[in-house]
Amino acid sequence: MINISSWDGTLSAAEFYVAACAFSELWKKFNLALPQWSWIPSSKRPGIPFNHVEGYLSMENVILPSFEQEDYQGDDLMEKEEYSCSNVDEFIDDAILVQNYCHEVNHYDFHIVYSTSYRVPVLYFRAYRSDGQTLLSDKIEKDIPPNSAKLLMKSKWTFITQEEHPQLNRPWYTLHPCGTTDWMKLLLTNEDSVGQDGVASEKYMVSWFSVVGQVFGLKIPFEMLGNIGTL
Amino acid sequence: MDSKGGGTEAQKFVWEGAIPLQIHLHDSEVTTLPNPPPALILAPRLGYLPLLVPKIKPFFSNSLPPGVDTVWFEYKGLPLKWYIPTGVLFDLLCAEAERPWNLTVHFRGYPGNILTPCEGVDSVKWSFINALKEAAYIINGNCKNIMNMSQSDQADLWHSVLNGNMEAYLRVSSKLKLGTIGDDYSLKLNSTSKSRQRTSDTDATAPIRTGRIPVRLYIRSINEDIDDLEDAPIVDSWDKISYINRPVEIWGEGKCFTLYNAVKALLPELFADKHLLTDNVSKAEMEDGQQSEEISSLRSPEEGGETSTEHAGSPLDTAEIKFLRIQGIEPKMEIPFGWVVNNLMNPEHYLHICVYIKVVEPITI
Fold first, then answer.
1. What pLDDT does A204 receive?
2. Per the UniProt entry, what are the Gene Ontology biological process annotations, in alphabetical order (chain B) (predicted)?
């Protein structure tokens, strides 16, 4: 239990494990049209067997829910093949709304990793085409809702950055954790359903994801937020 | 230890530390004959490789093929992570110090699947500031002091790092109130032992602090028995290095918290209980005929698995620490950790520790 009155918005590593498990159970229960989260145990220490509670949450091969794209840019050479399915010329009029099935579908992998420095979960993600080719930020921008894209462009260094994935040792994109504790405190200390003893760790991840997921247009159903404790 | 003055002897040593580099242009990028000779340059330990590019490029610009520069460095085939301080890269990748250190520079073909992008000095600056914010967060529970730095202070801080100017650095960084660690024999432990509730000290002198210390640990495993470090197998992939970015929490009221305690806190499995060690090591040696070094070396128990069942719970040695390097030196483990941090940390307030461990393949029966 987190004692709300003195809470600073952070989570311990053990609480993260509990919260992550509860979150993935809840996700399963709500059966959203999205893949499941799995816990990937891992350790960074060579030659030493790891402890199951160390690891991260992974949800892979996600196709983001589409939203209306009013000014679809038909400038990518690689995507020209796809245009032929709608019987449109190579030069596409920007004012035409293109059906989603003609648009190259991008896949996203999301990992939620605990940061021992910031003591909060951190989202890492990467995007790739159906053929596995990694996508860069300019393509990712087209997949995310316009508000997030604006933020991304304005603050290149402090919003979404490219960092080395702490477990996989490869460059991934990440949402910088700096402000997390501030908005987590706001979110959870305003909850009507805070019990006498405080807030269950389980609630943390759902609340956290309700904010973070919005960057990608992944919205958590309201019922999920109210559903903690009824697992 | 006066942080307002010129710094300690040890700090001077660290700030003046430099690695002589001999930089070769990669063959595939040489378009002139004869091949340009390598560039010889002194790289500050506390600096970063991309910061050297303005000095290196003139040596090679005539030879480069046409195109846009995307600079990266490589050592024996391994692309070097540009956000790791030069001294740390050297301590980690050169088991036996190589002077000058021979590196290859590339101006094309950036390995974006291995290295995060680097757009020159600005990328390094932002990486540095982010690391400083992270350190501040670890120490104080927030990075307000960094966020609230004036533009001129931020510029001064960065320039002091760029130019290797210790006095300028100490002047600006003391304003950050990141504190120093009391390195008295007996540490006064803050009653909550959590730095997150600490308010900033308005005292002019740097506050003594305990609590969480930013540490970055780099573990290199050597799987073979080698007599000479020169024979250590080269690191051909970053997958062979374990990187642990985890704060050390200082504990122990009335006791001296040493470097040993700190490393043990980060790698507990590599430290077996001494009693357990003496008993079972000799048994294990006899049963499995395993070669073992002196009892005082640090070992790790294996979790069940291949150990013979007659000695339930007896550890089978799988990994041990051979030595550690911090700023190119191998400090004795008994040194108070506070001293190590205050004197050997990098300007972003992180202590970087390179650990060489020997992993012994367990004997399967």
1. 86
2. autophagy; protein transport
Please name which of A129, A206, A216 lies closest in space to residue A175, comparing C-alpha atoms. A216
Flag whether residue A46 sits within 8 Å of chain B, measured between CB atoms: yes
Task: State yes or no: is A85 an active-site residue.
Answer: no
Contacts of B286 (CB under 8 A, 6+ apart): none
Nearest-neighbour CA in chain A from B141: distance (Å): 8
What's the distance, CA A193 to chain centroid?
25
Going by C-alpha positions, the residue among B90, B32, B88 that lies closest to residue B63 is B32
CB contact under 8 Å between A48 and B134, yes or no, is: no
In this structure, the strands spanning B180-181 and B208-209 are parallel
CATH 3.10.20.620 residue window(s) in chain B: 4-106
Closest by CA position to A137, among listed A152, A122, A124, A151: A152
| CATH architecture of residue range(s) B121-176 | Orthogonal Bundle (1.10)
Q: Which amino acid is at A45?
A: R
What are the percentages of helix, strand and coil residues in chain A, rounded to 5? 35, 20, 45
What's the gap in Å between the CA of B242 and the closest CA on chain A?
A: 6
The catalytic residue among A21, A85, A102, A178 is A178
pLDDT digits (tens, 9 = 90+) for A57-69: 999 988 887 765 4
Environment class of A142 (CB within 10 Å of its CB; exposed 0-12, middle 13-18, buried 19+): middle
What residue ranges in A133-195 does DSSP mark as E strands?
160-164, 171-175
Inter-chain CB proximity A116 and B269 less than 8 Å? no
- Token pair for residue B59? 């040596």
Torsion angle, alpha carbons of A139, A143, A145, A148, to 10: -40
CATH number listed for the domain at residues B4-106 = 3.10.20.620
Does residue A156 belong to the interface with chain B, where contact is any CB pair within 8 Å? Answer: no
Tell me the residue ranges of DSSP E strands in chain A: 38-41, 55-62, 106-115, 120-129, 160-164, 171-175
Rounded CA-CA distance B11/B344 in Å is 7
CB B252 within 8 A of CB B189: yes
ipTM of the complex: 0.77
Q: Is B260 exposed, middle or buried (0-12, 13-18, 19+ CB in 10 A)?
A: middle
Ranges of CATH 1.10.246.190 domains, chain B: 121-176
Global confidence as pTM = 0.80
Q: Are B93 and B236 in contact (CB under 8 A)?
A: no
Record: contact A171-B143, CB cut-off 8 A: no
A132 touches chain B (CB under 8 A): no
Q: What are phi and psi of B77, to 5 degrees?
A: 90, -10
